[in-house]
C-alpha cells in the first residue's frame, strides 16, 4: 500500500458497498517533539502493534488482535482500556523531521552518513530564515490573484537574505580551498602543509590558476550536497503533496461551497496550496545554484586578473589603472567571462526577489521555472568557461608584497554580512506600522552609505581629524544600529490593528530570527574556515591564524620560514565579535537565571494540584481545572492522596514546576541570543572595515575568540560523528523548525508538514466514509458520508500543530460535528500563536491572545489580556478552529464550569476541543487562556500508573484520568450534536 494510500477513495465497480459493523469512533493519536514510538504512543509493548499502512517516514499503527482483546478486557478506568466502539491508531511522523535521506547504495556507509549529518547542521540557519519568512505580517489574500500566496511586507528581502546565506557558505568553502590550500599551503612545492593528503600536495607543481581550477570543485561539492538534500526531500514530500492537492476527492481540495467563499475570509491554513511548494522550491533551488556558480567563477576570474597587483585587491585602492590593467589583450577574455558571471549573479538575485508560489505539478513547466533553468544553464556555462580560461591563461606574476592573490575572499563575506545585517535590522519593524518601517529603511540606507565611505576613504572623511579616526565613524554606525534595534521593542500601546504585546518580541520576530540565522551562519562558516586553518597549521594554535596590524598575535606564531597559514580578516573579526557579543550575553543569562531561581525558591507551590488550594504569595499555581475526584483510586504505585502526602514527592513536584517555569522563558533567552549575535556582527564589520581597528592590544580577545571557535567545531564534530546512523543532529530543533513550508530558502530543511498534514487529513476523511480500501472494493465514484463515524484526534505537543493544520485542510462540511480535537502538552497559543499570528494566532484559533512572560514565579500570570476572566476564549468566527469544532462562538464559562449567562453575545455550545496541561510541563501551556475556560483542563502531575511513582513532565498525558474523562466527554459531545 502506498504512502499516500489514504487519498485513494475510489474503486472500480458499481455495486453497493457493504461496510461491516465495527467501531464507529477513531481515536487517532499523534506524537509530538519527542518522537514517541508507536508502541509507546498506544501504551503497549512493541510486539503488540502492527503497521496499518505507510512507509519508513510516515505510518499509521494499530493494536494487534491479541493486544486489542486484552485492552478491551481491562477495567473502564484503566489508561490502556479500549472501548468496544473505538478504534485506536497512532500516527508516526517523526522520521520525516529527524532522519536524513541517503543516496542509493550508500545508505550503510558511515562516511556518507556523517557527511549527511554535517550537511544538516549547515541547514540550521536556513530553517530559521524560513521561520522568519512566515513570522512577517502576512497580508490578506488578493481576490485578483487567488492562486498566489500572501505576499506581505519583506518577502523579497527575506528571500534575498536566504540567497546571501548560500553565498556566505560558498565563500567560506572557497576560502578553505582557494586561499588556505591553493594559495598558502601549495605556494611552495618544497614547503607544503604537512597535513595535506599526498594527492593534494602533488598539485603544488602546477601553476596557481590550474591548482585553483581543480580545487574550485570543493565549494561546488558543498553546494551540491545541499542541493542533493533539498532535491531528495522535495521528491519525497512536495511531489506527492502537490499531486494530492489537485485530486478533487482529496481532503483539502476546495470545491463547491468552500470554493465559493470569498478568498479573503479563509485562514492561511485552509488554503490547499499552502502545502504545495514544488514550483517555488524547484525554481529557487536552481537560482541559488546559479548564484553559487557565479560567485565561484567571479572569485577565480578576479584573482586571475588582479591578484598580483596590490592596489587592485582592495576596494579603497581600486582605480582606473586597475581597469586598464584588466583590459589588456591577454586578460580581455577573462574580463568578458567575469561580466557574464556578474550578470548571472545579479539575475539570480533579481529572480529570487521576484519569486512567488504558483500552483504547478511536478513535471509541469512554469515561467519562473524556465527563467531559473536558463540562469542555471548560464551559470554552468560560465563556470566551464572560467575553468578553461583560468587553466589556459598566461601564468600570473608572483605577488612580491605578499598580498592575498584570491581577490574578493576578504571583502565578499564582509559585504554580504553588512547587507544582510541591515536587512535583519529593518526586519525588526516589518510587523509595525508602515511609517516606522520606511524610516528604518532610510536609516539603513544612510548606514550603508556611511559604511561605503569608511571602506573607500577611511582617512579622508570630511570633518574628521587627519589621523585614522574612521573608528569614530564606526562607533557612530554602531550607535545607529543599536538605536534602530531598540525601536521595535520600545513600548507602544497599539499598532492600530493588534496588541503588539501579544506577539513575540513585541512584533520584532522577523528581525530577531534573521539576526539569529545570520549569526549562526557566520558562526558555522567561521567554524569551517578556522578549523580547516588550524588543521593545516599543524602544531600551531588557532591564535596563529590571524594577524593584528601586520604582526602575529603571539610570539610563538612569528615563524621565519613563513609556513604559517592565516585566514582572511573577516573570520578573525567574527571571532572577536563573538567574544564581544556572546560573553556579555552569557553573563546576562546567568544573572537572569539566578534571579528567576531566587524568585522560584522563595515560594514553594502547594502540595497537590487541587484548584483553589491555598498557595503562598508569588508561587507557581497549579493548572486550572485539575480534577481531584480520583485521588483515592488505587494505582500500582499507590493513591495520589498518599503520594502527595510524601514530602519527597511533593518537593519533587515543586522543583519540577520551578524548572518548567524557567524553561518557559525560551523566547526571552532567544531574544538575548539575537542581541548578542547582532553585537558580534556589528563588531565584525568594525574590526574588518575600519583601518586601525586591529589593535595589537586585542591579542587576548582574538586568542580567546579563535580558541572558542576551534573548540566549538571540535565539539560539533564529535557530536556529529558519534550520532546514530540515520538521525539528524539536534533533532529537537528540526521538529520545531520544519513545520512551515519552505519559502525563504529552497535548500533549507524540508517541511514534514507538507506530507504529514495531507496524510492526517486524508486519514480523517477516509474514516468518515469507510474504514479502509477493502471496505470500498465494490463502489465506483465518491464514497458517501458515514454519519455514524466520528474522529477524535489526540495530539501531543507539536503534533497539535499538525492536527490543527489537518483540520483546516479537511472539508468543513464533512468535519463539522464529527471531528473532535484532544490536545495535551501543547504550545499552540504561547509560542506558535505569538511567533506566527496570521497562521496560528488568536483569530485563527478563535482563542484569546497571549502576552509574554513576566519575571515572576508564575511567568504567565499576566498572559491573558484584560477582560479575560472566567471565559478566556476570544470571539470565534465560523472560520476559526473553535468555530469549525463547535456550533458557534465559544461561551464564557465560570469557575464552576457551568456556561455563563452573559457571554457578550457568545453562543452556548462549547467546541469539540479539550486541551490538557500541567505546571510541571516545560512545553505544555493552555490553548485558550490561563483563566477557567471551556477548552483547557489540568492533568495530574504525578504518574502512579507504574510500579514507582514519578513526576510527570512533558509526556504521559494519555495515562491520566483527565485524558480518559476528556475523551469520553468529546465522544458524547459529537454524538449529542448528531442527534
Automatic annotation (TrEMBL):
Compositional bias (Low complexity) spans? 606-618
Alphabetized UniProt keyword annotations: Membrane, Transmembrane, Transmembrane helix
Does the record's keyword annotation contain Transmembrane helix?
yes
* Residues covered by region (Disordered): 238-261, 606-627
Which segments cross the bilayer?
157-176, 212-229, 287-306, 334-353, 374-394, 406-428, 440-458, 470-490, 511-531, 570-596, 667-689, 701-718
Q: What is this protein called?
A: Uncharacterized protein
Q: State the species of origin.
A: Cellulomonas carbonis T26
Amino acid at each position: 500500500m502506498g504512502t499516500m494510500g489514504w487519498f485513494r477513495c475510489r474503486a472500480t465497480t458499481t455495486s453497493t458497498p457493504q461496510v461491516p459493523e465495527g467501531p464507529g469512533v477513531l481515536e487517532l493519536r499523534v506524537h509530538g517533539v519527542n518522537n514517541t514510538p508507536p508502541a509507546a504512543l498506544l501504551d503497549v509493548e512493541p510486539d503488540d502493534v502492527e503497521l496499518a499502512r505507510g512507509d519508513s517516514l510516515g505510518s499509521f499503527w494499530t493494536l494487534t488482535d491479541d493486544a486489542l482483546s486484552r485492552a478491551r478486557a481491562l477495567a473502564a478506568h484503566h489508561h490502556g482500556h479500549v472501548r468496544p466502539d473505538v478504534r485506536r491508531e497512532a500516527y508516526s511522523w517523526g522520521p520525516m523531521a529527524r532522519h536524513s535521506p541517503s543516496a542509493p547504495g550508500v545508505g550503510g556507509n558511515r562516511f556518507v552518513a556523517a557527511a549527511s549529518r554535517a550537511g544538516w547542521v549547515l541547514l540550521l540557519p536556513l530553517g530559521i530564515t524560513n521561520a522568519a519568512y512566515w513570522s512577517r505580517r502576512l497580508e490578506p489574500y488578493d481576490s485578483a490573484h487567488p492562486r498566489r500566496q500572501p505576499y506581505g511586507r519583506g518577502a523579497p528581502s527575506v528571500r534575498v537574505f536566504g540567497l546571501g546565506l548560500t553565498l556566505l557558505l560558498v565563500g567560506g568553502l572557497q576560502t578553505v580551498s582557494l586561499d588556505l590550500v591553493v594559495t598558502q599551503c601549495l605556494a611552495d612545492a618544497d614547503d607544503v602543509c604537512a597535513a595535506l593528503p599526498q594527492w593534494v600536495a602533488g598539485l603544488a607543481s602546477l601553476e596557481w590558476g590550474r591548482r585553483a581550477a581543480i580545487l574550485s570543485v570543493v565549494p561546488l561539492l558543498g553546494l551540491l550536497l545541499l542541493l542533493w538534500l533539498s532535491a531528495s526531500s522535495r521528491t519525497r514530500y512536495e511531489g506527492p503533496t502537490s499531486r494530492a492537492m489537485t485530486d478533487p476527492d482529496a481532503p483539502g481540495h476546495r470545491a463547491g461551497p468552500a470554493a465559493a467563499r470569498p478568498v479573503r475570509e479563509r485562514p492561511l491554513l485552509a488554503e490547499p496550496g499552502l502545502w504545495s511548494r514544488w514550483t517555488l522550491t524547484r525554481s529557487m533551488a536552481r537560482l541559488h545554484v546559479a548564484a553559487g556558480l557565479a560567485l565561484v567563477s567571479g572569485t577565480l576570474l578576479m584573482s586571475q586578473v588582479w591578484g598580483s597587483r596590490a592596489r587592485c585587491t582592495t576596494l579603497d585602492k581600486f582605480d582606473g589603472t586597475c581597469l586598464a590593467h584588466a583590459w589588456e589583450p591577454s586578460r580581455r577574455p577573462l574580463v568578458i567571462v567575469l561580466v557574464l558571471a556578474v550578470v548571472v549573479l545579479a539575475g539570480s538575485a533579481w529572480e529570487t526577489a521576484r519569486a512567488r508560489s504558483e500552483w504547478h505539478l511536478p513535471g509541469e513547466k512554469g515561467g519562473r521555472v524556465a527563467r531559473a533553468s536558463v540562469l542555471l544553464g548560464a551559470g554552468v556555462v560560465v563556470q566551464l568557461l572560467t575553468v578553461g580560461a583560468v587553466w589556459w591563461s598566461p601564468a600570473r606574476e608572483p605577488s612580491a608584497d605578499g598580498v592575498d592573490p584570491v581577490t574578493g575572499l576578504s571583502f565578499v563575506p564582509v559585504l554580504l554580512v553588512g547587507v544582510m545585517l541591515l536587512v535583519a535590522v529593518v526586519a525588526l519593524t516589518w510587523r509595525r506600522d508602515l511609517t516606522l518601517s520606511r524610516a528604518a529603511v532610510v536609516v539603513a540606507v544612510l548606514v550603508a552609505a556611511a559604511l561605503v565611505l569608511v571602506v573607500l576613504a577611511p582617512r579622508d572623511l570630511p570633518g574628521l581629524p587627519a589621523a585614522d579616526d574612521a573608528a569614530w565613524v564606526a562607533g557612530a554606525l554602531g550607535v545607529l544600529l543599536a538605536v534602530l534595534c531598540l525601536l521595535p521593542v520600545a513600548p507602544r500601546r497599539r499598532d492600530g490593528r493588534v496588541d503588539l504585546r501579544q506577539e513575540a518580541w513585541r512584533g520584532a520576530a522577523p528581525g530577531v530570527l534573521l539576526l539569529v540565522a545570520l549569526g549562526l551562519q557566520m558562526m558555522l562558516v567561521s567554524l569551517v574556515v578556522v578549523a580547516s586553518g588550524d588543521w593545516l597549521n599543524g602544531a600551531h594554535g588557532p591564535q596563529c591564524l590571524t594577524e593584528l596590524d601586520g604582526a602575529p598575535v603571539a610570539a610563538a606564531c612569528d615563524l621565519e620560514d613563513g609556513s604559517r597559514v592565516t585566514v582572511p580578516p573577516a573570520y578573525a573579526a567574527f571571532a572577536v565579535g563573538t567574544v564581544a557579543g556572546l560573553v556579555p550575553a552569557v553573563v546576562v543569562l546567568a544573572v537572569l537565571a539566578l534571579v528567576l531561581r531566587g524568585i522560584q525558591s522563595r515560594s514553594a507551590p502547594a502540595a497537590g494540584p487541587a484548584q483553589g488550594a491555598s498557595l503562598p504569595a508569588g508561587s507557581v499555581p497549579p493548572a486550572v481545572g485539575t480534577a481531584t475526584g480520583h485521588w483515592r483510586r488505587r494505582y500500582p504505585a499507590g493513591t495520589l492522596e498518599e503520594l502527595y502526602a510524601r514530602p519527597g514527592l511533593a518537593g519533587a513536584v515543586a522543583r519540577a514546576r520551578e524548572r518548567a517555569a524557567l524553561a518557559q522563558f525560551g523566547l526571552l533567552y532567544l531574544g538575548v541570543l539575537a542581541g548578542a549575535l547582532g553585537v558580534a556582527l556589528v563588531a565584525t564589520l568594525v574590526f574588518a572595515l575600519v583601518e586601525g581597528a586591529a589593535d595589537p592590544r586585542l591579542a587576548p580577545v582574538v586568542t580567546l575568540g579563535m580558541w572558542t571557535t576551534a573548540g566549538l567545531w571540535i565539539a560539533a564534530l564529535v557530536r556529529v560523528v558519534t550520532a546514530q546512523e540515520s538521525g539528524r543532529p539536534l533533532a529537537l530543533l528540526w521538529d520545531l523548525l520544519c513545520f512551515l513550508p519552505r519559502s525563504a530558502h529552497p535548500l533549507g530543511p524540508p517541511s514534514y508538514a507538507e506530507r504529514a498534514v495531507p496524510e492526517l487529513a486524508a486519514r480523517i476523511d477516509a474514516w468518515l466514509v469507510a474504514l479502509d480500501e477493502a471496505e470500498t472494493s465494490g463502489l465506483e465514484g465518491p464514497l458517501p458520508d458515514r454519519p455514524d463515524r466520528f474522529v477524535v484526534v489526540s495530539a501531543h505537543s507539536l503534533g497539535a500543530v499538525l492536527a490543527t493544520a489537518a483540520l483546516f485542510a479537511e472539508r468543513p462540511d464533512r468535519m463539522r460535528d464529527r471531528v473532535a480535537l484532544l490536545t495535551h502538552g501543547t504550545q499552540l497559543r504561547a509560542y506558535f500563536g505569538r511567533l506566527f499570528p496570521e497562521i496560528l494566532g488568536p483569530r485563527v484559533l478563535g482563542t484569546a491572545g497571549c502576552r509574554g512572560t513576566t519575571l515572576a514565579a508564575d511567568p504567565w500570570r499576566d498572559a491573558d489580556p484584560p477582560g479575560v476572566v472566567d471565559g478566556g476564549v476570544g470571539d470565534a468566527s465560523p472560520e476559526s478552529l473553535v468555530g469549525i469544532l463547535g456550533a458557534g462562538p465559544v461561551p464564557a464559562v465560570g469557575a464552576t464550569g457551568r456556561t455563563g449567562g452573559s457571554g457578550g453575545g457568545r453562543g452556548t455550545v462549547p467546541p469539540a476541543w479539550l486541551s490538557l496541561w500541567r505546571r510541571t510541563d516545560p512545553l505544555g501551556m493552555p490553548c485558550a487562556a490561563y483563566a477557567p475556560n471551556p477548552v483547557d483542563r489540568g492533568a495530574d502531575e504525578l504518574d502512579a500508573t507504574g510500579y514507582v511513582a514519578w513526576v510527570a513532565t512533558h509526556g504521559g498525558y494519555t495515562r491520566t484520568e483527565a485524558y480518559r474523562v476528556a475523551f469520553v466527554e468529546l465522544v458524547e459531545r459529537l454524538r449529542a450534536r448528531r442527534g
